Amino acid sequence: MVALTWGRKAAGSVRGVPGKTNPSGLPPRLVSWSAASSLHSTEANMAVTLSPHETRTLARAQSILERQLQDPRTPRFTCGILVRSYLQIRMAPLDHEQVHAMFLDAQHALLATEVLGIGTLTSCQVHPREIARAALRHNAHAVILAHNHPSGAAAPSAADRSVTRAVQAALQLVGMELIDHLVVTAAEVRSAGERGFL
Predict the structure, then answer these.
(1) Cβ neighbourhood burial of 69 (10 Å; 0-12, 13-18, 19+)
(2) Long-range CB contacts (within 8 A, 24+) of 77-86
(3) Residue 174 sits in which domain range?
(4) pLDDT given for residue 85 in this prediction
(5) Is the residue at 198 inside a domain?
(6) Which of 103, 121, 94, 123 is nearest to 5 (CA)?
(7) Residue that wins the pLDDT comparison between 55 and 48
């Protein structure tokens, strides 16, 4: 089986030392949802432990954004601020690359979000056919694809551009639209559509 790989050369480590405080006072950028929740600041390269209350608050924020995306009264994805916020809360904390897909109906309301692949620190493999299969399972009309770069480097790689085109072609074969492919980091979310890759 041939699989496409998202990846890039590993940049400098962004990891801090668990249990240390953030002496810089800079706003935290990454949030971990694990039991050993820690907050990572790319600027300070230090880790800060989150309290259980802070972890629950961030989980509630993700839940609120998810409900808004599913609400028929929410403006659809003509403006991506809501989508970007949702994906950043969902994916920025991850310490390995993952591929997520948002499946949308004909009015671009959210049907479901699914993790399609979990990779290593610098790459993740998912075949375009698996993305199309998941979209068919959710009876989706359109898909927003996203993957994270744990290194913090948001620039799409040549592999990212190639995967975007392959997924777009696979979805078109089954009458579906790839709305965008987003690269998510703690600091920003970059769009393949805005960069002309779609």
Answers:
(1) buried
(2) 77/104, 77/108, 77/144, 77/179, 80/180, 80/182, 80/189, 80/191, 83/144, 83/182, 84/182, 84/189, 86/62
(3) 76-191
(4) 86
(5) no
(6) 123
(7) 55
Q: Is residue 48 part of a domain?
A: no
Kindly report the CATH number assigned to the domain that includes residue 151. 3.40.140.10
How far is residue 63 CA from its own chain's centroid?
15
DSSP element (H, E) containing 133: helix 128-137
Per the structure, the count of domains in the chain is 1
Quote the CA–CA distance of 35 and 43 in Å, as a whole number.
24
d(CA 103, CA 105): 7
Q: In angstroms, rounded to a whole number, what is the distance separating the alpha carbons of residues 117 and 95?
A: 14
| DSSP H or E segment with residue 142 | strand 142-148
Question: How many CA atoms, within 13 angstroms, populate the side-chain half-sphere of residue 57?
Answer: 6
In the chain, count of helices (H) and strands (E)? Answer: 4, 10
Residue 117, in any domain of the structure:
yes
- By mean pLDDT, which of 9-13, 32-36, 128-132 is the weakest? 32-36
Q: What is the pLDDT of residues 145-171, one digit of tens each?
A: 999 999 888 888 888 889 899 999 999
Beta carbons of 6 and 158 less than 8 angstroms apart: no
